[in-house]
Design brief:
The chain is built from 18 helices and no strands. The protein has two domains: 227 residues, no CATH class; 209 residues, no CATH class. The protein has 529 residues and is an all-alpha fold.
Length: 529
């Protein structure tokens, strides 16, 4: 349901007929997306009311699951729909044939010609997927295919976050914690990198939990579950390996700490081996290249974020263009703002209430490992004149810290509920509680309905406003902002020689030889992907 909602919502945006270069057209397009999202949300709430009033607990639970899935799909379906509007009239992806997107299109074209990509450390899955998509749907035009995948993968981030966090939480909590925490990861230009991080954290946390419990499992379950983890982790590492690099040290230490050394060690090893085998089958060759060639592949791409205070990670600008102003933004407490204080409070509460829980251990492991790796590479930046992608740890740090706040709220709610049941509910006689006279039987709410609807309504408003902000940033505009990347897509001659529909004064930049026909190339920008 989440995937269907996200994809249909993004495709539905194609019939919003506005001029994406005109600011009034952009605002009208965003307003139409917001209107559609609100109407769908109202239908979802109406269905929930009917389910709570007319059906039994099983169907009520089903409607809650479906409703949460729909909202998760809307969260990023909106951003993908905004991307669809911003690219209306041009077949090119965001940034046309420049930068990383041009290199990826070039590599995918080389793959379709039977050649190999020049970088042995770049994760191979996305270029292979792009090549296949272009061959099947775009007659080999890998740049046009890249626009499809930018929109599709952006739409799938919300469903992916919801699905992965359902491993840990009930529907409303998975939506509130998982999808909300993924908001800073919305990156329409290259969404294939951040969608991996969205699912990597909950899956590696679940791996740690299952590792602790493996002695209580049957041998068959250890093997099948381990193999499932191995396949998932193997696919993720060849999709984008950066998150594995930043998190590896902390995750390894945590696994060694929770490993049942005295009781169940052999059983745990069966589970670990069952995980490692498919992981290496899928990603072994790439990991070998990464280990052997990675040290020799120097990333000397210095850009805005490499000159920012390395301790600041709350907002990640990346290497996108745009006026900066004062950065980092000023904080009230020694340069530290209120948002950072909230994140630190979440960390403290999560540790206080759940220090021994697998999820908290995994989140803290990813946080600590990314933090240390960040400063390791940054501290050597001057000496080695190499960046080694360290600013990308900002995304993981922000994501994990937001997750810790969500987990802290969840654990606090559980603790308060336990205390309420212990000290209040058992001392209250239900027979003495009278129904308020002003509440008619016709509108009486059933248990859980009000809280469910209230939470969903709040999250729809949050996701809608956040998605609108992200979509607005990438609307085409002729300046130095990130929207200039989308603007370039409208000013580039099509493969057939004609100009895009909304090219400035119906004149456009000459294409020349398209990337998918050029000899294979290697650029620093692509390595920074």
């Amino acid at each position: 349901m989440a995937v269907l909602t996200a994809v249909v919502f993004a495709v539905w945006a194609r019939n919003i007929r506005v001029n994406p270069i005109n600011r009034i057209g952009q605002v009208s397009g965003l307003a139409m997306l917001q209107l559609r999202m609100t109407l769908i949300a109202l239908l979802v709430i109406a269905a929930l009311v009917i389910a709570y009033r007319r059906f039994g607990p099983d169907l009520q639970a089903l409607f809650v699951r479906l409703s949460c899935a729909v909202v998760a799909g809307l969260a990023t379906g909106f951003v993908a729909g905004g991307t669809t509007i911003g690219l209306r009239g041009t077949p090119w992806p965001i940034n046309g044939v420049g930068g990383d997107v041009g290199t990826l299109a070039n590599w995918a074209g080389a793959i379709n010609r039977g050649e190999s990509i020049p970088s042995g450390v770049y994760p191979p899955l996305f270029p292979e997927l792009l090549a296949l998509w272009a061959k099947v749907f775009r007659h080999g035009n890998t740049s046009y295919a890249l626009q499809d995948l930018q929109i599709l993968i952006m739409a799938l981030i919300g469903p992916a976050a919801y699905l992965a966090w359902r491993l840990w939480f009930q529907p409303l909590w998975a939506l509130a914690i998982g999808v909300t925490s993924s908001i800073p990861l919305y990156e329409p230009v290259k969404p294939y990198t951040t969608i991996v991080l969205v699912v990597f954290v909950p899956i590696i946390a679940k791996f740690i939990q299952v590792l602790r419990r493996s002695p209580q499992m049957t041998t068959r379950d250890r093997v099948t579950t381990g193999a499932a983890f191995g396949v998932m982790l193997g696919v993720m590492v060849i999709a984008y390996s950066g998150w594995f690099v930043w998190s590896a040290a902390g995750v390894l230490v945590t696994c060694l700490l929770v490993l049942p050394w005295k009781r169940g060690f052999k059983a745990a090893m069966v589970f670990v081996v069952a995980t490692i085998i498919p992981f290496l089958i899928i990603g072994g060759l790439y990991i070998k290249d990464l280990l052997l060639k990675g040290g020799g592949e120097k990333d000397d791409y210095f850009y805005f974020d490499t000159k920012v205070d390395p301790a600041y990670f709350l907002m990640w600008r990346g290497d996108s263009p745009g006026e900066v102003g004062m950065w980092p933004p000023p904080g009230e407490l020694g340069g530290v703002g209120v948002f950072m204080l909230i994140l630190l409070l979440g960390l403290a509460v999560a540790l206080a209430l759940g220090m021994r829980r697998s999820l908290v251990l995994a989140l803290v492991a990813c946080l600590a490992s990314s933090w240390l790796m960040r400063f390791w590479f940054a501290s050597h930046m001057f000496q080695d004149q190499a960046v080694q992608l360290y600013p990308r740890t900002s995304i993981e740090l922000a994501y994990v810290m937001l997750l810790l706040v969500g987990v802290a709220v969840h654990l606090s709610a559980q603790r308060l509920k336990s205390l309420w049941n212990r000290f209040v509910v058992h001392r209250t006689d239900p027979a003495t509680e009278a129904e308020p006279k002003h509440v008619g039987a016709r509108w009486r709410t059933t248990p859980g309905m009000a809280s469910t609807i209230g939470a969903l309504a709040a999250m729809v408003l949050l996701f809608g406003t956040a998605a609108s902000s992200v979509a607005d940033d990438i609307m085409p505009v002729d300046d130095s902002s990130i929207g200039s990347l989308t603007y370039r897509s409208h000013q580039l001659q099509k493969a057939g020689g004609e100009c895009p529909r909304y090219a400035n004064k119906h004149k456009c930049q000459r294409l020349g030889t398209p990337p998918w026909k050029l000899p294979v190339r290697n650029t620093p920008g692509a390595n920074n992907g």
